[in-house]
Amino acid sequence: MAAGASSGGNLTFMAAALGTGSSRPDAVAGWSAAATEAQQGSNTAFGCDGVDSGFSLAQSSDPMACWTGTNTYAGCLPAMSTYDSTCDGAGWYQKIAPINSYTSSTMPPIFFANGGGPASGIGMTSDPELIGLIEAVDFRTVLTTQLVINFRCIVNRPLHATAYLPGHCNDGNTDTVLQRTVTFLGDHLVP
């Protein structure tokens, strides 16, 4: 089992996807983990985009910090505070994105909590958090298509990472995000 917040969540998801044998966790959880990294979402925006990218609604609460962090993590140096076409063309964004590594139903079960907005039908009434909500929407689509056991918790508030833990998923359940995470991981541990 493994869990992580923000970039730690991304690393946790990648360990689950790429690990083998005893190095692969039985189940994983992440809060505000970037799942698609700097790849265009189904809404044609990048998860780090702000209104300056031509969209009427920002995807990220802090596009400069989001892009700088993503580019640094991808190894695209010097890290730009915007989309880096050279980094993208070299495949670095794709290599660090869990959405590209969860490719079969044998992948470990995954719990992920994200929040903010905008994402049609989910979070249009909340300002965005650092990681664009569209990343969670698109990740869920891929996981479901691959038949990977997953639980997506959306918290319609512009928080980030462990700040979600005392909150509640927007599905009517009264357990906190932390309680839901622990239950999910406990249900999917291999004895």
Quick structural summary:
The chain contains six helices and four strands. It is of the alpha/beta class. It has a four-stranded parallel sheet, sandwiched between helices.
> Treating each run of at least 4 consecutive H or I residues as one helix, how many helices?
6
CATH superfamily of one domain: Alpha/Beta hydrolase fold, catalytic domain
Count of distinct strands: 4
**Structural class, from helix and strand content?**
alpha/beta
- As a whole number of angstroms, the C-alpha radius of gyration is 16 Å
CATH class of one domain: Alpha Beta
Which strand order do you get reading across the main beta sheet? 1-2-3-4
Q: Tell me the helix content.
A: 25-40%
